[in-house]
Design brief:
Elements (H helix, E strand, L loop, with lengths): L1 E2 L2 H9 L4 H11 L4 E2 L8 E8 L5 E6 L13 E4 L4 E7 L4 E9 L2 E5 L3 E3 L2 E7 L9 E2 L2 H6 L3 H6 L1 H9 L3 H4 L2 H15 L9 E4 L4 E4 L8 E7 L4 H5 L1 H11 L4 E9 L4 H10 L5 E6 L2 H5 L7 E5 L5 E4 L3 H12 L1
Parallel strand pairs: 3-10, 14-15, 15-16
Antiparallel strand pairs: 1-2, 3-6, 4-5, 4-7, 7-8, 7-9, 10-11, 12-13, 14-17, 17-18
Helix pairs in contact: 5-7, 9-12
Length: 326
């Protein structure tokens, strides 16, 4: 990965130990002038894939805010033909995606986040391994191997790096975006008290505060009514809720909806008979404040409202509750 300009070379030299982590942050923001080697040859990505399903619709989902995609990145769909599929589109630098498979309009697979870069690359998807990073080999994925979670766990290190930037860099558009993202990361950092949120139910506005909860552990589950993976975890969550609710475990659902999908939200709650509290984040304002753009997302809190885990899957949550509540 190459950074243009003397100011970035000086930063890299000064923070050589943090180089890989710093690169990860810049890619995640997708606004820094990053150039991957393959971009020299191509400004289009081509993703040739193989999946263990002979039919269905492959859906490529961009991750993050629209402002980070200057060439109007969008959701892509293509048909699976004899276990193969292919997608291509203009691409200026590495973009983050999830990839999913629908069969007969039902989600049967969704991956974890991965990165596509300019040029050709191959991807291997296994429908039996949902929520995992698919097999994909490109320069960006090699660079990020083993460092993605570091951003979540050690975001304080980025604060110290940012503090060393000159005022000129901080006042650029890129620097301002970085400052906003670091602020959001600090609010939702493991070890921080989960913030109060302005949410509503279908009738009135309500401020959600969980720091004074009497529960030993509370799962804050962010979802939305048309999210297949979100709905797919409800049965497992219902079992955990039923098992541990009398032991001090609670769930709070927060759905990112707009005025046109409120009825869909209510129907999903009714259809799946969700027994825990549900709130609306109308137009995703609070999700944006917390930099939540991937669903489902969650936060596990202790009895003081402190974040002790993020993005925990139902299997790990089950193990945690069994160990700590029984």
């Amino acid at each position: 990965m190459i950074f243009k300009g003397d100011r970035f070379r000086l930063i890299i030299l000064k923070f050589n130990i943090m180089y890989k982590i710093f690169c990860t942050l810049l890619i995640l923001l997708i606004t820094f002038p990053v150039v991957v080697e393959s971009q020299i040859k191509s400004k289009t990505f081509k993703l040739d894939g193989e999946i263990n399903s002979d039919s269905g619709t492959i859906i490529l989902l961009p991750i993050g805010e629209d402002v980070y995609y200057p060439d109007q990145m969008k959701v892509y769909e293509t048909k699976v033909m004899k276990n193969q599929f292919s997608i291509s589109n203009p691409c200026l630098y590495p973009y983050a995606f999830k990839i999913g498979l629908k069969v007969n309009s039902e989600w049967v697979y969704i991956s974890d986040v991965f990165w596509v870069e300019p040029g050709g690359q191959k991807i291997l998807c296994n429908i039996d391994s949902s929520r995992e990073v698919p097999v994909l080999s490109n320069l960006t994925m090699k660079e990020l191997k083993g460092t993605y979670d570091t951003f979540e766990l050690n975001s304080s290190e980025y604060d110290s790096i940012y503090a060393q930037f000159s005022t000129t860099i901080k006042n650029t558009y890129t620097g301002e975006v970085l400052a906003r993202k670091l602020k959001a990361a600090k609010i939702a950092r493991i070890g921080s008290v989960f913030p109060s949120l302005n949410l509503s139910d279908s009738k009135k506005q309500k401020v959600l505060t969980v720091s004074n909860s009497h529960n030993k552990f509370t799962l804050i589950d962010f979802w939305y009514s048309h999210c297949g993976p979100c709905i797919g975890q409800f049965e497992a969550l219902k079992k955990l809720y039923s098992t541990y609710k009398t032991e001090g475990f609670s769930i709070i659902g927060i759905s990112n909806e707009n005025s046109k999908t409120i009825a869909d939200w209510e129907n999903v709650i009714k259809k799946h008979q969700l027994p825990w509290e549900q709130f609306l984040d109308l137009n995703g304002k609070e999700c944006s404040n917390l930099s939540i753009y991937v669903f489902p997302s969650n936060f596990l809190l202790n009895d003081k409202g402190v974040i002790i885990a993020k993005h925990i899957n139902t299997n790990d949550l089950s193990s945690f509750l069994e160990k700590n509540l029984k």
